[in-house]
Every structure is written in C-alpha cells, then in structure tokens.
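#struct-pred

JT: dropping the chains for the assembly here, can someone run the whole complex?
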Amino acid sequence: MPDVTLIIDGQTVTVPAGTNIVDAARATEVAIPVFCYHPKLKPVGMCRMCLVEVWTPQIDQATRQPVLNPDGTPKLVMMMGKLQPGCVTPVAAGMVVKTVTDKVQFAQRGQLEFLLSSHPLDCPVCDKGGECPLQNLTMQFGPSTSRYDYQDKVHFEKPIPLGDTIYLDRERCILCSRCVRFQDDIAGDPVLGFDSRGRSWEIISKSDPPFDSKFSGNTTDICPVGALTSSDFRFKARVWEVRPVPVVCTHCPVGCNITLDMRHDRLMRVMPRENDFVNEIWNCDKGRFGMRHVDDAARLTTPLIRRGEQLVPATWDEALRVAAQGLMRVRSTAGATALAGMISADASNEDFALFHHVMRDTLGTPHLDHRPGGPADVALETASARFGVASGTNLLNLGQGALVLLVGADPEEEAPLYVLRLRGIVARGGQLITANAYPTKLDGSATRVVRVAPGREAALLQAMVAVVLEGSAPMSARARGIDRLRTSLKGASVGSLAAAAGVDPAVVRALAEQFVGARHAIIMLGRTGLAQGSAASDAAGALAAVTGAFGRTGSGIIALAPGGNARGAQDLGIVPGEGGLAAAHYWPAIMRGEIKGLLVAGHDPAALGAASASALDALDFLVVQDAFLSDTARRADVVLPCAMLPERDGTFTNAERRVQRSRQARQAPDGQRAHWQILQGIAAALGNDPGYGISSDVTDAIAARVATYAGARYTSLGVTAGNWGRQANESVYYDGTSYANTEGVGIQLPTAAEGDGLPPVVASLTPLTDAIVPGIQAVLVPRAYDGRDWARGSKLAPRMVPPHVIIGAADAGALGIGIGEPVVLASACGSITLPAQIDRGLAAGTVLIVDVAGIPAADLCDGVVTSVTIARGEP
Amino acid sequence: MLGAIFKGLRTTLGYLFRKPVTVEYPEVKRPVRERFRGRHQLKRFANGMERCIGCSLCAAACPSDAILVVPAANDPARPNSPGERYAATYEINMLRCIFCGYCEDACPTNAIVLEHQYEISFYDRTSSIFTKEMLLVAADRGHGEIPPVLAQLDRRPSPPAQIDL
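RK: done, full complex below.
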C-alpha cells in the first residue's frame, strides 16, 4: 500500500495508507489515550477516549483542488467540525492531527469523569491496581475531582465467576468489548457477549461450561480495568510486589515466552512475555493456570532408596552412589545393552546433553529415548531438520499468499497457541487446510477441510506428491534424490493413493494445485500424523522438496512432536542408537530379559498400561528422576527428586527450532536438583564427571559439539527483537497486557537447506496403496487438559477431560449407545470399558479415545490408530 | 572564693524546695504529644470488622520495608473486613520500623494508626516481628477509644484515630 504523510502534533510521520491515527501517533511516540482500542484487535470506537482534532485540507467542490491560503499553504478544516475518534479514523495525506489542544483535553477529562461515574473506585482491593490503564489515564488525563455524587453509584453483586478461571466485576467494567473481540476474532471461541442494555449492559458468557475457551486468561490481560481478573491470582499479591522472571513454558512444543511472577519464593501468577516469533503477547490457559504443581505439597523432597519393600529417605551422596553402582552392576553382569534410559521431552537441552553423557558416552547403551513408550509415541523424524521452516520464519508476517496444510494435527489440544497464530494467517488472507480423520475445532477457521481415513494422512501427502510429480513443471533443483523419489512412487497412481487416503482424487489435485500455487507453504504435522511411523514426515518432506517449499523464510515443515523440547531431544541424540530400541519396545525387551536396568527421567510409563507396569516390576534395577512419587517411582530402587521449571535454568528448542532460554526463578524448596545436575552426580559417581559448574557451561558444550547449535549460546539467545510496537510511554496505555521481552527472543536454528550445506536429500517413499480396512478404527487423540501431574492444584481442575470414548452419531445409533453409557472396546491387545460421548460430526467407522490420565491406553491400542470392535457395555 | 561557694549552695538549697522535674518512670509516664508516633495498632470499624482490607499500600509506602501483608479473599459468610479482601497475614518488623507514619498516610481505610504506646522493647530479634494478632485491637475495643496514656492525662488521640469516635 502507498505510504501517507501527515503531521501529528507538529511531527511529520509517514505510515502505510489505512493505518489509523492512534497507530500513526504511536510511531511518533505521541500517545493518544485509548481504552477499547488495542493494536492486536480491530478498532470499534466504543470508548471515545481517543478523540483528537483532525484537520484535513479543504477541497474546492468545483475544481476538486485544495483551497490554498494566501501564503500558498493548503487551507485546513476540522474534519466533520468536531473531534474524531483516532482509532477508527484512517490517515490521509496532508492531515494534521492535534492531540493536546484545550478542546481535546476537555473531551478527555469529560470522558474519564463519565467512565468513573459508575466505577467503584476500589483500587486498593483490585488485582489490576498498579497496572491498570484506567488508573494511569485518570492520573494523566483525568479530572482530580468528580461532579457526580459518590453515593449515587450503581452497585452490582460482585464478583461473579465467568468461568472456572475468570471473575467478572461488573461495577468496574467500562464495556470496551476488548474481551469479546479477543474471543471472537483472535481466539475463535465466541463465548462472550453483551447482554441487556443501558445501565444494566453487561458481559456474559454464552457457553456451557461457562467461558469454554483455552485462551480465557488473555482477556484479563487486555482488560483495561479490573473487570476481568483471574481466580488463580485473586488477591495473591499486588502487582508491584512481584518479581517477574522470564521463563519458557514446557507444556507443549510452542515454547511460549512467559514470566513467572514470584513474590519471595512463591509463584504468584504466570503472565505472557511478548515474543512476536512465538506467542506474540498471548498465552494459553494451560500455560497460565497449569503451573501450580510447582508448589504442590506432594512434591518429593529428598532422594529415596529402596530397603526391602520400603523407599526410605537418603542423602544425595548416598542416593547418587547407589544409583551409579546399580547401573554399573547391571552393565558389568549383563552388558551395556541391558541398560536403557528414557528422559521426558519436557527436559532442557542441558538435561539431554548430560543424559547422553551418562547413558551413551559413559555406560554405552544404545537404548535411549525421549518418548514415553506408549501407543501414541510419535515416530522420529528428520524431515523438519532438512525441510523445516527456514530461519527467520515468523507466522505473524504470513497472510495473503500463504498456505498452511495441517496434517493429522489438532493444535487446539496439542499446541494451543498455534490456533491463534494460524487464525491470524487466515485473518490476513492466508489459506488454512485441515486434513484430519476427525473434526477439530480449527476446522471452523479453515479455508478448506479434508477428511482423511483414520491413519491415512501419509497417503494423502503421497498422493499430493504424486500429483506434483505428474506435472510437467520442472522440479526444484534445491533438493537431491527427486529422481529416486519419482521411481519409488512409480507403482502408485494418484487415484490409488487418494483411494488409500479415503479422499476424492479431484480434491487431492485441487489441494496440490493450491499448495504449489502458494507463495509461502507450510506443512504442520500433528501427533496423529507423526505417530504413524515415519511415513507421514517423509511424505511431508517429499512434498516440501518437490514443491520447493523449504529453505526459504515462511515455508517448510513444522512438526508438533509432543513435549516442550522434543526437537531438542532429537537434535541432541536422545534417540535409539545403533541397535537401540524405541521406548515402546522396552517393555517386551524387559520381559524377554534383554533389558535389566532402566533410568527414567520425568516419564511415568507405569501409568500407560499393564504391560509397561509389569515390565517395570520385572527390572533388576530402576532409577527414577521425578518431581512426584509417580507409579513408576514407587517401583524404583532409587528415586531422585528433580527441580521443576522455576528452579532451573536452561534452553529449550521449540517446534519451529527456535532455541530459547528459560531462567531460574527461585532455589528449589528442598534442595531438589535439575535433571542435568542429578545426571552429572551419577556421572561423577561413575567416575566420568564432566565438571560443569552452571547451566551455561553445558549450553556452551552443546554449542561446541552439535553443529546446528553453534550459535545457541546465552549471549546470542539474549538478543531482543521484534516487539509489537512498544513505545517509551507504552505502559500508560497498555499496562498489564504482557511483559516486554527483555531477555531475548532466542534464535531459530538453520535447516540443512540453508547456508553453504549441500542440498538436503529427500527420502524415497513406500507407496501406501493398500485398501482401507473395514471395521471400526479407534484413534487415540490428544487432549490439552489431560489431568496429568501439571494439573495439580490448578484452577483448571474442573475442566480436565474425564476418560471417555467419542463415537459418531451413526455408530452410536446403530449400537443403541446413549451419552454417558459404558462402551466396551476390544482389540487384539485387550479391552477397556469407557463411557461414551456422541459427536455428530464424526464419520461412521471412527471412534476417538481421549489420551488422558486414567485411561490405560496401551491396554487397548498398539498404535495411534487401532482396529477395534465396540459393543454396548453393562451399565 | 567563700562567697562563690555559698552562692552555689544557695542554688542547690533553692532546688530542694522546688517541684522536681524528674518523672518516676515507670510508675509515672511522661505524656506524649498528640501527634506522637508510637507502636502501631490495626483498628476496627464500629461494627467490629477489621478496617484493614489487605491492600498492601502501607507495605508499598514503607521506606524501610518493615511491613508484610499477605492478602486473601474474605469468606462471604464470615467476612473479616468489609468487601472481598482482607489481610491474612500482617506483620511489622519493629527493628526495621522508623516510625515515619507513611503507612498511616497510605492507608485508605485508616486501619493502621501509630498510637502513643512507646514501650516496645524486646529481648530477641524474633520478637521484633509484631503479628496481626498483636497489632489488631480487641474486637470489643479499638473503635477509637482514647489510649490509656492519654486517658490518664485526659487528652484526645491523634487525628487519624478519631475517625470512629
């Protein structure tokens, strides 16, 4: 768009056409006070706080030329003859805006006096007090006294819960509709609305359960008054008393930047920290309200060692020595291959480095894994390291001409913040295609929805590759191995692959055409897609390779492997080595007596099902590093209590390969140690102490050892960039919204396709043309609110998904199953009984089993998609 | 020289017949000025509710960081203070306090008042932490009665303490 030059308070400024006056003023550090306007939301002009004088050149009606003053300058007239709201008035050439005239100040004073006429003035007890735009603007622009009678204020009952996490105080609400607009436009959960009118005009929740959104906490941030406050932070502390510590959330692969607001050594609240590359200024409820487990009373405090049937407290020295001796004993009696290790994908890169040091370098076992060892384990994939989104990619900058293909993914449940990012791309004119076996919430925002047969996402991608290969267009020369790829797909036609995917070939062709035509193309693979072996990621890599959608900014693959740092785990070699087994294969190997010693850090395999639980019982020696006494820890010979996110420093790599630093907010309350410190202790007891002092020593060692991490040192991770247009006096207007990013936005690791490296090699594919198996397929679907350890003490506890199975209306009707009635699911692995939920959108032949705490999924499923039979259970 | 000695002794003898200025502390307490700032008290409303709403503004105003307030939500059935919020913990470290009275100025409900009690010595450092139980006046008292020291002298308390009188 052409730029427009105008004058704001005597300063000449040039901004793109279409910019509103408030944003144009922000560019010159002139601040126009606002309540309803927010730079991330569409303007509505409801609060009238941004009234300014707007002067435009007068146009002669007859000649259509500007009227000139005698001195030759254009004659200016006040727009409409009165003050204009800056947020809904677009800039125009030659415009002169005045924001500090008597007329404007009179309007501002009057507006604030009016807003305060029904405000309870209970700032001393209000959680927003101290970071409240209404307080700030009243101090700066408002009258010092009011002409309204204090006794005349309207009072409502307060507070009323708007949901489990949000309280509404109607007396404080100034009806700016920021919360309503956030839910409608950004979150895509239109659960809030206005009710009634006049003095009784109020915000209500329209959903059941109330405020049914995974982004509800953000409304408390953007609320310019204390009308919406969180039940989690209610009366915990005043905002000026807290010490915000920059941390990276590890609940999902997004890697949101958050701050932990600490008062002394207690966590008071979690707030988003802006990072335009990751989470903008938002944060999901799981990250915001799901951090209370760090102060849970059930946390392990001391190391425990087994004496007979009992686990008894021990000193760190003793416990580390026993752990090292036990592992060494297994190694000397049964060999290194009798040892295995698994570490949670939520651990930091430093943890992975030390885990690798102990298990691979010191003990020499090939059995290493970061996956939990259950049926929904994702396959290892290297496609996103080769064809991943290139460095410099920022989904915030994508819009017109961009296309995102979601394959087997449900971001709402796997990586909630991607919902906001992807909806943003659609709002800016981009394309979003969801290809899933079952309906997801993001289908509502997608520009095209493709239903794939369960477990056949890879076939759809292969069919798209085949369509592109059929075309006469020359293939991208930036990838190697395309000829081999062409040969490998020779036996399969587009039609047969599309049939195997359960998709109409015409739809596949249209999809491929759209994909090829997009200026920026991103393939996002979710857990359901990734868990079907490497077929989906290989096919995604092939699609990126043949269309050239890799190695350039804004194109490539994003793989949503579960865990906060699954990418880092793969990069740092926490994967089965030569002859090594994947975690899911540990359990049969233990029963066969091939594995006798196991080190588990952060995982709880005993909860997966009977097979893994009995395998853990059969072990000779088990070391567990965990924060809680899990079912696995109860079976351990040595339990080592680990420090949690606030108590440790470290770096984490997110799904887009951005390495970010998380800081330590407090000392561990009972001397618990970070995984890497525990592992270093074990290494020392094994006689191979690497001798790291602090976390950054390990980070530096990683940078020296792993080529792609060469730039990922604390100094480079701390560079700040890209914020949403903050200005010097910003906090007066957008106080309490999010913390500024002062600790660095991290760095995005380069892909193999960037720099001087050789072009990446595309994997050849095995065509998936076998016919769709008849019968019912059970898909193990992820749920964000899965009720696992993170949910302890959380205000989200009532929202945890109970164990259940979701059945399509047709199947339920055929079997006579009603809502809530027990259903017996049986497969080759076993059977489980679960209460039923009925989904009208779900196709016949597919049932969804929610992957939450309390479902021994491994007792039924042998993969993410399993053939089952269903029957009505005895009530 | 002898004259000078007698002059001095006459002065001494003269004091023998004057009223002594020495106060027999602790039997007799010296009166303090009306705006004297002594030990803090947390006042109550006339209906017995705590005036303190746990807003922490006193702690924010305190130049020596002597005050700790941990707020909590009131149980609507049995509220401690009017409104939604009260101070679950209220502590003043008397070793840190410099008796400047800023807390009194900051208090939006006149809950904290520096009264005329000045005998606040203690034997160990832990006793310097005055808890809410120690600071809060009894439920049946403290709605602005005149402090004993003043009552003894028939004087009125300091102005902020007179709100409820």
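JT: nice. The two ends of chain A are 65 Å apart (CA to CA). The longest strand of chain A covers residues 831-839.
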